[in-house]
Amino acid sequence: xxxxxxxxxxxxxxxxxxxxxxxxxxxxxxxxxxxxxxxxxxxxxxxxxxxxxxxxxxxxxxxxxxxxxxxxxxxxxxxxxxxxxxxxxxxxxxxxxxxxxxxxxxxxxxxxxxxxxxxxxxxxxxxxxxxxxxxxxxxxxxxxxxxxxxxxxxxxxxxxxxxxxxxxxxxxxxxxxxxxxxxxxxxxxxxxxxxxxxxxxxxxxxxxxxxxxxxxxxxxxxxxxxxxxxxxxxxxxxxxxxxxxxxxxxxxxxxxxx
Length: 258
Hints:
Radius of gyration: 18 Å
CATH superfamily: NAD(P)-binding Rossmann-like Domain
Largest sheet: 7 strands, parallel
Number of helices: 8
Oligomer: single chain
């Protein structure tokens, strides 16, 4: 039997990209799903697809992970229904802007820190006590190669992903003696809406990021997250760094591929 079958998986930022791909991958393994994102219409469309194609049990909620009170309300609502996630995928995150620090927009900074760091904390804090009480749980944080090496103009985004790396390590230490595992999956270039968001909707600039090489797909990352989640209970895949073959670190990228 698939180790994921009949488990409950909560995915944040599930309306697009890696989050949406995770929802599809876990549904294919027979998991029940709780999908959170800011765009409820997209979530409802995805839920209808998964119910029809996979017969999946899917709950959706419009949740901005930056809103601690909203996160708490939705977590409490799930608890009242007897739902405690077996697997929490902290996927919600973004990059906003690509400016040197001296010219950076503080609104971009707040958006990244509030989503990538505080959002992860808000959701984890809401569910970890319940996971501990239930005697089970696996948190999988979506990190980045940007949390291992800084790059020009990455500054605050880099800092937010270094924070995710540190939080993954810190959460593991704090949860010692409990059955709750914490992992991170840290991809390099992935072709999603990420660059479009970073460049504030400039599609031409966003697409140029992926010119000349074959980046990872959202499905590649979802497959890796599913692999990490499928490990036996006594195994914790602590960290996975996932790169397209054309990328060897944040600086070394072969753009000669077609």
